[in-house]
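Sample log: Gamma carbonic anhydrase family protein.
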Amino acid sequence: MALRTYKSVAPNIGERCYIDDSSVLVGDVTLGDDSSIWPLVAARGDVNKIQIGERTNVQDGSVLHVTRRTTQFPEGFPLIIGDDVTVGHKCMLHGCQLGNRILVGMGAIIMDGAVVEDDVFIGAGTLVPPNKRLESGYLYVGNPMQKKRPLKDSESAFLKQSAINYVMLKDEYIEDSL
């Protein structure tokens, strides 16, 4: 695993986390307990912070980055990801905020300043433009994204179940490596 310090700031990893050896976490990256980072993920907290909550999984080939602080944007755009979030394969998350119990479908892109409230399903390949807000309880799809419909009960339940599935999987990987 590649945990790299940048300007004297090293990644901060919670308890019982799995980080694949092929992934790279640089600088101001915090990973909450029971979370997992899968093969070929790049998380670069060099010019701002990346904060990933508990029981969150970031799947293969995803890129996580931030936007620096400027006069126009004194806080810049950090990347904040909540608890029980599933980030699908090859996603791009850049300077956005994701709440809790979210599924980001494969290949989705979420841009600077976007805010995704709790309990949201983002379809595969969806583009969330800068500074958009995705309201809790809905499915969003398309390029650019559109609010498609309210989530079905089964979809809402799957948001949490997906996170649980990845906690169990990362536990198997950890056990297998002992």
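Observation: The first helix runs from residue 153 to 177.
Observation: The mean pLDDT is 97.
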